[in-house]
Design brief:
Largest sheet: 6 strands, parallel
Order of helices and strands: HEHHEHEHEHEEHEHEH
Radius of gyration: 16 Å
Mean pLDDT: 92
Low-confidence stretches: none
Number of helices: 9
Helix content: 40-55%
Shape: globular
Distance between the termini: 28 Å
Number of strands: 8
Amino acid sequence: LVIESIRGMVPAVKPQFAFYEALGSHGFAALEETCAMARDAGLLIVADAKRGDIGSSNVHYARALFDVWGFDATTVVCYTGGEALEPFLKYADRGVFVLCRSSNEGAGEFQDLRVSSGGDGRRLFEHVAERASSWNRRGNVGLVVGATYPEELASVRSICPDMPILMPGVGAQEGALRASV
């Protein structure tokens, strides 16, 4: 019902894996149904899975998300570095959204830490944006930056002016859509 009501209004849906996984095999059946409905509606499907382990595990995560499930894009966590994300990045025809500055209230605990790299003292999320830009050799990398932090979003946009941004946090998290856009 929800997917039918948004047909023609949005380009994509982003199923959050945790809500499906929590239901076990019934959840995966529901995820398959959700994906089938989205495809029938002509929507792109972004797996909000936030995967990001060592390379050998990521090979299987990427295969599952892109080859088995057929997602058009996914979200990943980059803490293990660009080399470990290569199994996702090598899918040139699939999007990979790197968690950069999340929308949750406690995001700044780590993401706002000042990190000295060559003496610049930029915040960790700014370094993530810069590194993600360097990983974008195939033109398939984007960033996840929460609408709840429009100033940080502006900083990321200045570092990565041409990369797509997935912007969660509007709605229940009270993200500032107008300020973020």
